[in-house]
Design a protein that fits this description.
about 210 residues; mainly alpha; Arc Repressor Mutant, subunit A; 8 helices; about 50% helix; globular; disordered N terminus
């Protein structure tokens, strides 16, 4: 998968429609997918999915990996050429309306899937995480934390790539989900730019 600095020129086309972002997410999750599989997964008409897949392919966000004859038709399979996440600079260039749409979609999926998984013991296993920490940061600290989380996402992708190379469909795997949330709290935004009006949040106690 390409390094982050090589995908900027494709970003505007890839994100021109929210459904394209969902397609990219699903293909990244599956590793490889066809428009028929995407139409089923996203509950969308095949013609609609095929159109958006072509746009993503032409903008080099997806590439054709193979074709397979199925029921008298040729099914095309694609893999992602860019990750389904954006760094700070890329996110800043996305229109605000789109940012809120994508954020809302992601949050709903996180909450729904985490709640469903939690009911069957998904957080029981060692290595599972359900953590929360409130911090109060200046602008430098905010940027440092955001950069750290970006690096974590790229490292997660690298771990996935190494796992794919080892297993290649031959051994058992565990489907897991990594969700990172970093956002300014609502009361902080409501207080505006006047720091004197901001109410200090209750922070997680500092470890000794």
């Amino acid at each position: 998968m390409d390094a982050p600095h090589t995908i900027d020129e494709r970003l505007s086309k890839a994100l021109a429609h929210p459904l394209r972002w969902r397609i990219l997410e699903v293909v990244s999750e599956y590793g490889e997918a066809s428009p028929i599989e995407l139409a089923r997964a996203l509950d969308q008409p095949l013609a609609t999915i095929s159109h958006h897949v072509r746009v993503l392919r032409d903008s080099r966000c997806l590439e054709l990996t193979r074709t397979e004859q199925r029921r008298g038709a040729l099914e095309h399979y694609y893999r992602p050429l860019m990750p389904a996440f954006l760094d700070d600079e890329q996110w800043s260039r996305v229109p605000t309306v789109f940012r809120r749409t994508v954020a809302g979609q992601v949050l709903r999926r996180i909450f729904d899937e985490a709640a469903e998984a939690g009911q069957v013991g998904a957080f029981d296993a060692a290595g599972s995480h359900s953590d929360r920490m409130v911090v109060e940061l200046d602008d430098v600290g905010w940027s440092e934390l955001s950069e750290l989380l970006n690096r974590v996402l790229w490292q997660v992708q690298e771990i996935q790539d190494r796992s794919d190379a080892r297993s290649q469909g031959r051994g058992p795997t565990r489907s897991s989900e990594v969700a990172i949330l970093h956002f300014e709290r609502a009361e902080s935004i409501a207080a505006g730019a006047d720091a004197g009006d901001r109410q200090r949040p209750k922070r997680t106690p500092r470890l000794p």
